[in-house]
Amino acid sequence: MSTLFQPTALVGAIALAMGFSTSVFAAESQDQRVVNAALDTLVVTASRSEQNIKDVPARINVIGTDQIEQSPIASFPQLMMTDASINMVQSGGYGQIASLFMRGTESDHTLVLRDGVRLNNDASGLASNSFIDTTEIKQIEILKGPASVLYGTNAIGGVVQMITKTPSKNSAFISAEVGENSTYKTILGLDAVENGFYAQLRGQRLETDGTNIFDYEGAEPSSYDQKGFSGKFGYASDALDISLEHSENEGRSQYENYSWTTYAYSPRAHDFLNQVTTLSTRYQASQNTELKARVSHFKDVLTQLNVAEETTFVSDEYDLSVRQNLTAHQNLTFGVNYKALDTETHKPSDSFQEQLDSTGYYAQHQLQTDKLKTQIGVRIEDHEKYGSHTVGQAAARYFFKPHISIYSNIGSAFKAPTMNDLYYGNYANPELKPEESVSYEVGADWQMSSAWRSGLSVYRTEIDNLIDSDPANGWKFANIDETTIDGTEVYLHFNRDQWFAKTSYSYSKATNDASGEDLSRRPRQKIALSLGLAEEVYGLSATLTANSRSDSSAYDEDSIPGHMQIDLHGYYNANPYTKLFFNIQNAGDVNYKMASAGNSDGQYYLSGGRVASAGVTFRY
């Protein structure tokens, strides 16, 4: 593997940076006091338009810039692990398959977006979570609960949306981080702003020797490398916003495969490529009328080496919406979304290709007063293969006092079968029907003082025709009559001066009503805790996440033991232009079990283990 940024160079850069005088500078500090999802945080995922997070009649969490920029080498799955409602199952370390289970739903029941563009492909139904780069991401919004009214298929469990940065001033930076297992990442960035016009360029490269996926004698580490770039160009004013954005990431991930012929492991690898191109505009036609339009192209390619297999997914999407203010406190949004989906898998045998079109028509009404916030919507999805589906949602939040509110919502959602469910391998079933769900939720939020706030949510999700393996029919995929998920979430946040603490707890019971058994890979309990201090010049923090045990899969009786992970982070702003930082992922270096490999030798996929790293960022 190449050495893009040598450790000796990093040490030299740190030594040079320490020679600068220390100064206090509020404007340039990237690690302002860490208040995740603060009361003045603006989010867009819940309603497709900006709104204050405290007004959203649903549970939503925000991973902010401060947390994303703690560690350039931290992957998207690692960031997702810090949310108590998400069980992130990764089959090894960097670049290995990563599945996201939100609130007990399936891994393809969470829709992943980038500025409104869906990253879930139609082959597996999943986003390529392990290959997503977060270099230019401003914040990640995690909307919990059904969202098919606004976003269509896949949004049964919720939506994870990455919001990209838009330049606000002329600047340039270079950031580099070096860690254990020969892990390196370098990022270059350039921003330019002039009279409303802006340009943003980013380039990044990550390489790592990786860690062992299994713990059998003679196991070899599985390496990973990626490189990518992005550009964003646009114009912004009160009346008109227009932007053109392109992002591209490619690389190679090595892994190990078990052969049922030789009863041994052999090294494998796959190459990946994902591209997103988006042209979007917002036009304020009048004081009461706003129009938004988006055209996007998404391409996701996975090439399995050694076995001559390649899957290509292409999605072209067109979205047009109009938001009309009816009164000072009411608005109506209506729109249409068209998707042209093309999935093609080439294999030595049983290749398949399918092109599908889907058109969604949606409308949403909002009432926004000081005490009452409501959101009611309906969507009709016209799917080329499965016909029309109608979903709806109604939600409300009521403020007894400015610092105490309750909310409730009910919503339906759906998900069409994936191409792999229908056609891939011996377990496919071309007769599968779409999954449908209804969810109910109530919750409360309380700002107890200027420093303390807390909240509670209780929810139930009922899923009909859940697609799962059927042991009575040779483990082929089948539609399960009904699945019920009951759960609750509690959070408590503290922030005073430079000190902060955040803790959240999630309980979720996902049950196959036909068999009475828990669904696989759903730990019933998870807790996430972060605490530390964040000064303008320096900061220290620690994050703990812990899961209870869970079943491994429907194919075996293996279970995944409960596990705990502690991450550490620190930074030092040497001057307005130089920031030094360190990270320790999995400080205990615990190779805990993530999932059963399903082989006869009893092996489990292991977590990536500890990665201690240090880095420097220069800004101009």
TrEMBL record:
Main location group: membrane
Signal peptide: 1-26
Keywords, sorted A to Z: Cell outer membrane, Ion transport, Membrane, Receptor, Signal, TonB box, Transmembrane, Transmembrane beta strand, Transport
Localization per Swiss-Prot or TrEMBL: Cell outer membrane
InterPro entries in the record: Beta-barrel_TonB (IPR000531), Beta-barrel_TonB_sf (IPR036942), Plug_dom (IPR012910), Plug_dom_sf (IPR037066), TonB-dep_rcpt-like (IPR039426), TonB_box_CS (IPR010916)
PROSITE patterns: TONB_DEPENDENT_REC_1, TONB_DEPENDENT_REC_3
Segments forming domain TonB-dependent receptor-like beta-barrel: 215-586
TonB-dependent receptor plug domain location: 53-159
Protein topology in the membrane: Multi-pass membrane protein
Segments carrying motif TonB box: 41-47
Keyword Protein biosynthesis among UniProt keywords: no
Family: Belongs to the TonB-dependent receptor family.
PANTHER family for this protein: COLICIN I RECEPTOR-RELATED, TONB-DEPENDENT OUTER MEMBRANE RECEPTOR
Protein name as it appears in the record: TonB-dependent receptor
